[in-house]
Design brief:
With about 350 residues, the chain is an alpha+beta fold. Helices cover about 30% and strands about 30% of the residues. The longest helix is centred in the middle third of the chain and has 32 residues. It is elongated and about 65 Å long.
Amino acid sequence: MKLNSAFFSLLFLAFVSLSCKCERKFKNTGFSVTGKVGEILVVCDQAIWDSELKAHLDTQLTQFIMPYFPDVVTFELIHRTNKNFEGAIRRHRNILFISIDSKRKQKLGAIQSRKDVWANRQLVMDVIAKDYNQLMELCKDGMNAVHFKFDEIEWKRIMFNYKGQENRLVQKKINKNFGIKLALPDASTIVSIRPNFYRLVLPTASRPIEFVGSGTQDVGSVLTGIMIYQYDFIDSSQFILENLLKARDTMLRYNVPHEIDGLYMGTQYTKFVFPESNTAFNFNKSIKGKEVRGMFQFTGKNVYSTGGAFWEFHFIHPKSKKLICISGYVDAPSTTSWTHPLRDIQAIWKSIEIL
């Protein structure tokens, strides 16, 4: 069994490598994708969905974006049988077909990807096996890589959408002050301008708020924004998480005050939501930097205050030699999903280009 697992892993890695080399632009089908950001539509027989294979799908496809609270998942799974896969549901943004073909001539199972099958910027993944045991092995070894493909296209869709929108006045100011370009949604507004610090407010979105136990919903406002700040780069020790957070807290203390005097935006350092960081790249891998995720709160006085999530990217500008941070924040009720607004933030910092 171990030999089979290793072989399937190598097979899937070969598939991923091949698909990366053959990456192409999406074609225009004339239709827009349906479904919510953060959903994967799984199309398979009911017997497969009800089997133990479902546990592997849940574990590997519904991963958490850490360290947020309440929990934020990358994806939620919805199910349709092949019989019920018809109409507008075919244009769902992320589709995963799982099937068993006993007449399959190939000895090994396969995982394949298709783009723009029924809608623009749609990603369809196919998992095909000869029998159930082979399907289980394929899903055990391959679902993390399938998750990677869906995860990547989710923020890319948003980024490409923003790239097609007009924000000339805002872009001109950002270009001049920081020497960078960002993809931003229409109606983004700069609300604070200082020599080394800008704060932008993104268009207010509405997401359904679930009232627990009542079965009812209300429309809740989701407030999102982007902060851009810069300071002199001295040495690589500035990219240590502790130092990035110190610089962040200093910048926010003087530049993001609360409406209550004495309060300002700060960082939450409690154990369960302590900020996390890792090496990351922009969309075309031309910029390498540090990605930091965590929770913010308004601090400065011993009073109750609001807070939310932040997701930011730190890098060195090759021309100005400044350390620049693109820091997005989400202020939303805990009873509504944060997946979509956080994906918006991710798409914006991923879009960065040097001028």
